[in-house]
C-alpha cells in the first residue's frame, strides 16, 4: 500500500534491502541504494530527464485544495492566523523531529501523514476562531462605533466626543440646569384655570373651572330670585315704625343709604326691601360675613380672607389652589348639614320678623320663611362654588344714594389667570340701580 505523502515510498520489504520508487519510473536501482543503515535521505532518485519528480498522492492534492480554499479567510484574519500558523508549524516540526528520531520502526510516509494532518487541524482551528471573532466583532460594532450614540442616550445634547485632553469635561451635558429662580418663576406663571398639564392629581380633584358666561348666569339667577321673593311676599304700603324696630332696621342699611329714611319717605318701600334683602343674603353667605356673622363654612375659610394673600405674588397662586382644594374637601364630606340648615332658618326668620309690617298677607308666614330658607341656601352654595373657582370675585355696590338704590350689585373679577391682583378689574355684571 502506498502511503499518502510526498516523501519516498518503500518498494519492497525484503530483508536487508530497501527500495524506493521516485516519480513515474519503475526502474529499481539497487546498486545506487545504500545498504547498511544509511539514511534514506542520501539517495538520489532519478526520473526521466534526470529530474527528480515526486508523485503527489490524491489525498495530498485534496489537502492542497483545502488549504488554498481557506487561504482568503486566513489572510482576512491575519492576526489570528499569524498566531495559529506558528503553532501549527511548530507542531509539525516537533512531530516531524520526534517522528524522525523515533522512526526506527515507522516509515517516513506515516510521519509525513501525521504532519499534514496536524497542519490541516491547525488550519481548521484557525478558521473556526476567525469566524467566532468576526461574529463577536460584528455584535460589538454598533455600540463601539464613535459615530453612533448609545441606545440609552435620550438627548443628543448629552454627548460630545473629542480627542483633546478636555474630552471628559465635554462629555458632560452642555445644557445648563435650570436655576431655582427660574423654577419659582415658572410656578408663579402657571395657568390656574388649566392644571391638566401640571398635575394629573390636581386636575382630578379641583372643582371644574367655569367660564365667564356660566358665572354670570348663576349670579344673575340668584339676583332674580331675591328680587322675586320681595315682589311675591312684600308690598308697597306705609307702615308705622316703632322705636323697638329702629335698631334692627338700621343694621340693614349702609353708609350711603339709611334704611329708616327710605322706608318712611319712599312711595315704593319694596325697592328699599330689595336692597336690604340683597345685601343681607350676600353678607351672611360671604367669606367675610357681616354684623350677624356668616354662614360660610369655617373649614372652607381656612387661613382667612383672600386679600392678605392675593396681594403677594409668591402667595397668590398657592392661595388659589388652597381655596379650591378646601372647596373640594368640603363638598366631599358634609357631616353638619342639619346644623347648617338650622342656622339658615334662623337667619331667614330674623329678616322676616324685621320687615313684617310690609309683608303680603296673601301668603302665610311659613310659606314665606321656607322660600327665604331655600333662597339663602342657594346663595350659600353659590358663594362656596365661586370660592372654588381660580379667581377672586367681589360685589360692586357703587352708585348707592346718588343715582338711586342698588337692588342688584355688580360682579367683578379681581384676579388674573396667575392669581395676582388685576388692577383693571373685569366687570362680569353691572349693578342694577332703581331711582326713587
From TrEMBL:
Regions that span the bilayer: 110-134
Chain segments carrying region Disordered: 1-50, 141-163
Compositional bias ranges of the Polar residues kind: 35-44
Keyword entries, A-Z: Membrane, Transmembrane, Transmembrane helix
Compositionally biased intervals (Low complexity): 141-156
Designated name of the protein: Uncharacterized protein
Organism annotation: Pleomassaria siparia CBS 279.74
